């Protein structure tokens, strides 16, 4: 019980209230910040996936007793993973990454084992939900 409270305290300490958030976390993001070309989206997805895996690793080492995972067993999605990844993305201060992070469906957003081709699904969703993105820019 003590370890569970300690873990929850650590998670809550990492979750800032809106009034305590750094200035870069308050910046607005827009789907227009997300590059829709293959290379740009692939790079953004790889960066996001790297941060998701890093968040999972941090949470595994924060687990009771400092449990170290062996093999490729999935890391449980919990409040630690969610708050860690949200924090890591905000720390990057990258509008495209923040917009991409929020464009991913929640089920896949925190999944560190999602397909490396998931960026294609995100592009299809963005174009379907934002038809103005598929129109050429008027100069």
Keywords:
139 residues, mainly alpha, elongated
Brief summary of the model shown:
With 139 residues, the protein is mainly α.
How is the topology of this model organized?
Blueprint (H helix, E strand, L loop, with lengths): L1 H13 L23 H25 L16 H14 L2 H9 L2 H4 L8 H12 L10
Helix pairs in contact: 2-3, 2-4, 2-6
Describe the 3D structure.
This protein is mainly α and 139 residues long. It has helices at residues 2-14, 38-62, 79-92, 95-103, 106-109, 118-129. Helix 2 crosses helix 3 (79-92), helix 2 packs across helix 4 (95-103) and helix 2 packs across helix 6 (118-129).
| Beta-strand proportion | under 5%
Compute the number of strand runs. 0
Radius of gyration, in Å, reads 17 Å
Give the helix/strand class.
mainly alpha
């Amino acid at each position: 019980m003590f370890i569970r409270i300690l873990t929850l305290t650590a998670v809550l300490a990492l979750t800032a209230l809106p009034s305590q958030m750094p200035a870069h976390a308050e910046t607005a993001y827009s789907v227009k910040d997300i590059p829709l070309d293959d290379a740009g989206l692939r790079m953004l997805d790889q960066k996001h996936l790297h941060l998701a895996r890093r968040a999972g690793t941090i949470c595994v080492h924060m687990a009771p007793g400092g449990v170290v995972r062996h093999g490729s067993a999935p890391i449980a999605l919990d409040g630690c993973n969610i708050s860690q990844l949200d924090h890591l993305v905000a720390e990057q201060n990258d509008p495209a990454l923040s917009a991409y992070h929020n464009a991913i469906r929640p089920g896949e957003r925190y999944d560190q084992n999602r397909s490396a081709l998931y960026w294609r699904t995100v592009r299809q969703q963005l174009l379907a939900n934002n038809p103005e993105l598929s129109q050429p820019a008027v100069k």
